Each structure stands twice: as C-alpha cells, then as structure tokens.
Amino acid sequence: MVDRLANSEANTRRISIVENCFGAAGQPLTIPGRVLIGEGVLTKLCRKKPKARQFFLFNDILVYGNIVIQKKKYNKQHIIPLENVTIDSIQDEGDLRNGWLIKTPTKSFAVYAATATEKSEWMNHINKCVSDLLSKSGKTPSNEHAAVWVPDSEATVCMRCQKAKFTPVNRRHHCRKCGFVVCGPCSEKRFLLPSQSSKPVRICDFCYELLSTGEMTACQSTRSDSYSQSPKSSLNDVSDDDDDEDSSD
C-alpha cells in the first residue's frame, strides 16, 4: 500500500499541506518515495509539564511541532529518522495514560495518546515503518538511546547527592547520560557523547566516573525506561511554547 501511494497525487498534496503548515522555518518534506502514513495530536512529556504536540508519521521519518493554530499552523519542527527509533509501552499512571517511549540515540521522550486504541494504532504503525526500513536497508535496530529526562516535578532534591534542595537560585540540571535531575555541584563536568552533540555535554559526577573508566553501560538510569513514577500533571495543562529540554539544562 505504501509503495502504491508513494507517487500518488493525493500523497503529494497531503505532504505539501504539512510543509505549508510549518511555514518557511520548516524543512522541506517532499522527497521521492516518502508517504504520509498518519497524523494526530499527542501529549509529550516535557521537562516542565506535559504539552500537546502535533505529530506526523511518514514511512521514513517522524515529525512533530508546537501547535500554533490547530490544523493550520505549527512551529518548532523536529524531524526524527525512523531507522533510529525504538518504542516501548509505558504503564498508566494517574492522568498520564496510553503512553509509550520514543527512544533515539540523540533524544528520547514519552508521549501519550487520548485513547488505548489510538496508542495501539500509533505503536503498530511506527513499528511497521521501522521494520520495513530496516528490512530494506539491511541495518540492525539501534541499541544506543539517549536517556529519557526525569521531569523537574519529580525531584525536589538532587537525585545524586540527595541533599541539595532546588530553589529559584539553586537550579535543576539534567545529566545527559542518565537523565537524572541534579544540582550544579553534582554536574559540573562535561563529557563528549557523540550521538547527542559534537561538543561535550553536562553529565553528573556518577556518570562521569563510569564513563571515564570505560564502564559506560553501567551509568544508565536505574529507571531509564520506566515512567511508572510520572508526575500527576493534568493532561489539560499544556502550552504552545518551546520544549523546555531544548532550551535549558
């Protein structure tokens, strides 16, 4: 079905509409063989709180952005190559239900659908696209994933020293390796994580010691792929500003 739609006028028109919704700031999305599989609003768990984001699933990429005007205008376009994506289901917790993790080498995060049926459809379509891509390319699934950041609301004190309390002066920071919320003194060091950045990034002292001694796999978060402790934020508490984790540490 995807191959049949690839060069159809209807598919070309649909992709063109998506491009126009992102405006001049968005990247061109029309390339030979690309098919728009589906779209919809998902709630993305960001650093500060859950936020509504518009997602578009193509046969080779996943695109999402902030909602400026529903169905008409989006900004802050993000493009994720599906070849690098792994997804895992998340247990329901309070208002945060029907969720799953989207994990890539550069960035990983949790999203939530409105219903269990919608979640199942999204996950099935994503897995099918990833499987087809890997089958065609002969590549193996990615086994390296960026940590899912622990939301700010889950940590009132540093998750490493367990002493420093967070205040407007004593800011929260995130370790890029384990995703923990840590204080400044516990995350003064930086380390080069090529999959995430061309420059050294902030990591906690614990991960730095393990990375420095070559024990890289040991510094994965003890809660890395589990969001059973997700914050009890309301799914209606959303905004259209930029993702917090993209603009602060």
TrEMBL record:
Keywords linked to the UniProt accession: Endoplasmic reticulum, Endosome, Membrane, Metal-binding, Protein transport, Transport, Zinc, Zinc-finger
Region (Disordered): 221-249
Bias (Polar residues) ranges: 221-232
GO terms classed as biological process: endosome organization; endosome to lysosome transport; protein transport
A single GO molecular function term of this UniProt record: phosphatidylinositol binding
Protein topology in the membrane: Peripheral membrane protein
The keyword Nucleotide-binding belongs to this UniProt entry's keyword annotation: no
SUPFAM superfamilies: FYVE/PHD zinc finger (SSF57903), PH domain-like (SSF50729)
An example Gene Ontology CC term for this record: endoplasmic reticulum
Keyword Endoplasmic reticulum found: yes
Biological function: May play a role in early endosome fusion upstream of RAB5, hence regulating receptor trafficking and fluid-phase transport. Enhances cellular sensitivity to TNF-induced apoptosis.
Protein name as catalogued: Pleckstrin homology domain-containing family F member 2
Organism, as annotated: Panurus biarmicus (Bearded tit)
Gene expressing this chain: Plekhf2
